[in-house]
Design a protein that fits this description.
CATH topology of the domain at 54-158: 60s Ribosomal Protein L30, Chain: A
Strand content: 5-15%
Helix content: 40-55%
Distance between the termini: 106 Å
Shape: flat
Strand order of the largest sheet: 1-4-2-3
Structural class: alpha+beta
CATH class of the domain at 54-158: Alpha Beta
Number of strands: 4
CATH architecture of the domain at 54-158: 2-Layer Sandwich
């Protein structure tokens, strides 16, 4: 028994089949996309994203007690201050200001001001500019001879907690990173960073040497070589 279909009917059936196949293709792509999003959000992350290093600012403080009638800092207090400033200048200088809180209105106010006068040459010797130092008075309630407080904000780096071995490393059909991958690397970086602020971004460039720039430009104007001229001893001599 033969069934004859008209040209219009064949076209309608063909169109319906094409739409159905296209829908199935889109459904398949949608399923793949959801799977890719799942993998990208959980398994294809870089170690730095899965095991981030948390950088925060924590206060670093020291107190110097100056008794009433003192002429300034004692030698031991000067040594203590130099050690504190050395740590600040070595790794945290530029991250925050150095704040010196001086008691005001107390019985040792004059002695505290004498101690601050002793601090100024120490700050200069440590290479700390006055523009990065803030001297602020404070009132201490209930304390007869309050101390001088020196403080600054330092950056600290906290590494991730490692040791999560929840994945079965014997089954790696998808060849994806396991959960603990890269964690020890991130933890070591956090522990070794001398200045954790470097983990937040690159440092700014220091100003160019104006003296060297003037020398090079002067040679350029005089049509002289701007590079370093080797001495006779530094030149290679053919034998």
């Amino acid at each position: 028994m033969k069934i004859s279909l008209s040209h219009k009917t064949v076209r309608a059936v063909t169109t319906a089949l094409t739409v159905s196949l296209a829908s199935l293709s889109l459904a398949g792509c949608d399923h793949l996309d959801q799977g890719q999003e799942f993998h990208a959000g959980n398994e294809l992350l870089r170690p730095a994203e899965r095991h981030p290093i948390v950088v925060t600012q924590q206060p670093s403080r020291m107190s110097l007690r100056v008794g009433r009638g003192a002429a300034g800092l004692t030698p031991a207090q000067k040594a203590q201050l130099i050690d504190f400033l050395s740590r600040y200048h070595a790794s945290d200088s530029g991250n925050s200001k150095l704040v010196i809180n001086v008691p005001s209105g107390s019985s040792n106010e004059v002695a505290a001001m004498n101690a601050v006068a002793d601090m100024r040459p120490i700050l200069a010797d440590q290479g700390i500019s006055e523009s990065t130092v803030s001297i602020e008075p404070y009132h201490s309630d209930g304390e007869a001879q309050p101390p001088i407080r020196v403080s600054y904000l330092r950056f600290t780096a906290q590494g991730p907690e490692c040791g999560k071995w929840t994945d079965n490393l014997g089954v790696t059909a998808r060849n994806l990173n396991y959960n603990n991958f890269g964690c020890a690397y991130q933890k070591n970086i956090a522990a070794m960073a001398s200045n954790p602020a470097d983990l937040l971004g690159p440092r700014t460039m220091t100003p160019a040497s104006a003296d060297r720039r003037d020398v090079v430009y002067d040679k350029y104007v005089k049509d002289q070589p701007t590079g370093r001229i080797r001495t006779q001893e530094e030149r290679a001599v053919k034998q």
